[in-house]
């Protein structure tokens, strides 16, 4: 092979000469560009005036014109290099998918070809009308949003509520299942209101309104609206059950009708003691006091019982009317009025309530 020379191996070890610094300076001068000569005064004035008269200055003044390469040319020049890119392009070619996104899909191009000129104009007019209507409603919404009148918003809420009620009635007539789903949604809102208690005037805003309600009528109305909203949401949704016909009631229900029991110390002239006892827990005690006495007429209807009570009330009222007539005859003497009242009260049976007497009587 080639022979090694000792001088070549020892060449980098030699001390650096004084010309190395000069070489570096020369290389720096070569890399630097030559400075252009300054313009003359006339040319400089012309450039300054031109810049002053220009409407807009963009720096740097000498810009390179950017060349825009078309997308199709760039896509055609680009090639798949990695295995993943090659696999993706292979799948696209197999399924005949376009590599670049076209302006129209094949379905849209087919529909355009099948559509006549009149149909295209009609479709265009429909789209224009839809855009006009949409812009009208957007402008109306922006205009309504700027209105700060509380009365206007209150009237708007009431109109929306009436509209919602009418829609629900129509929905109930047309689709009962959808109306039932709407009722379930209202029940869900009611549950949320019961859990959160949002409209009970206990928040920070409600407390500040409560302070101002003493002086501000609008604040008072706002609080009342909050409470009305709470009451509306807390109302339970009631569904009316179908009425049962009287013929469908079983015989056991007729026999199990509770008959009012008469206490032992009650007099026959007091109709108020014929009602039911005040509490259901007192029924067994009364029955024990009476013994195993069978009450006659346990299967009587409610209409006959009401007639009996009315007859006893009429008898008692007639008795009171006679006593009142006698008191009015004795009313000639002023001292006899208090005695007549005490006598009338003493004649009433024990435990019977006192009827209120009108001023005319």
TrEMBL record:
Residues 242-361 are annotated as: Disordered. It is found in: Nucleus, Nucleolus. The keyword Hydrolase does not apply. It comes from the Eukaryota. One of its GO terms (biological process) is rRNA processing. Belongs to the UTP14 family. This is U3 small nucleolar RNA-associated protein 14 A. It comes from Tauraco erythrolophus (Red-crested turaco). The lineage of its organism: Eukaryota, Metazoa, Chordata, Craniata, Vertebrata.
């Amino acid at each position: 092979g080639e022979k090694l020379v000792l001088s070549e191996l020892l060449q980098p070890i030699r001390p650096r000469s004084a010309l190395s610094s000069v070489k570096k300076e020369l290389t720096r001068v070569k890399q630097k560009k030559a400075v252009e000569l300054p313009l003359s005064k006339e040319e400089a004035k012309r450039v300054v005036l031109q810049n002053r008269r220009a409407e807009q200055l963009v720096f740097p003044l000498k810009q390179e014109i950017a060349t825009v390469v078309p997308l199709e040319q760039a896509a055609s020049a680009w090639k798949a290099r990695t295995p993943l890119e090659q696999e993706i392009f292979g799948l696209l070619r197999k399924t005949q998918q376009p590599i670049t996104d076209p302006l129209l899909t094949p379905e849209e191009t087919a529909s355009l070809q099948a559509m006549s000129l009149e149909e295209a104009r009609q479709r265009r007019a429909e789209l224009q009308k839809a855009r006009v209507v949409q812009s009208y409603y957007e402008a109306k919404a922006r205009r309504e949003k700027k209105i700060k009148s509380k009365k206007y918003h209150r009237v708007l809420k009431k109109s929306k509520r009436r509209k919602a009620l009418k829609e629900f009635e129509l929905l109930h007539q047309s689709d009962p299942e959808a109306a039932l789903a709407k009722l379930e949604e209202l029940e869900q809102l009611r549950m949320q209101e019961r859990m959160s208690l949002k409209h009970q005037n206990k928040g920070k805003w409600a407390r500040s309104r409560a302070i101002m309600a003493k002086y501000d009528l609008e604040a008072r109305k706002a609080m009342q609206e909050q409470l009305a909203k709470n009451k509306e949401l807390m109302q339970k949704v009631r569904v009316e059950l179908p009425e049962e016909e009287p013929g469908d009631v079983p015989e056991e229900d007729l026999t199990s009708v509770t008959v009012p029991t008469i206490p032992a110390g009650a007099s026959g002239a007091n109709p108020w003691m014929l009602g039911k006892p005040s509490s259901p827990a007192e029924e067994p005690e009364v029955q024990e006091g009476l013994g195993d006495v069978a009450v006659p007429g346990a299967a009587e209807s409610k209409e006959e019982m009401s007639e009996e009570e009315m007859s006893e009330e009429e008898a008692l009222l007639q008795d009171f009317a006679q006593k009142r007539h006698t008191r009015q005859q004795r009313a000639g003497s002023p001292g006899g009025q208090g005695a007549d009242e005490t006598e009338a009260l003493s004649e009433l049976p024990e435990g019977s309530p006192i009827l209120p007497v009108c001023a005319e009587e």
